[in-house]
Amino acid sequence: MSIQEKLDQKVDQYRILSHPFYEKWSEGKMPVEKLKRYAEEYGAFISLMPMGWKTLNDHHTVEEEEEHIELWEKFANSLGTKIGVSKINEIQSLIDSTNKLFNSPETAIGALYAFEVQQPETATSKLDGLRKFYDLSSEADEYFIEHTHNHHEAEKLINLMESLSKEDQEKAIMACEEMSKALWDGLTGIDEEQILH
Question: What is the CATH number of the domain that holds 49?
Answer without folding.
Answer: 1.20.910.10
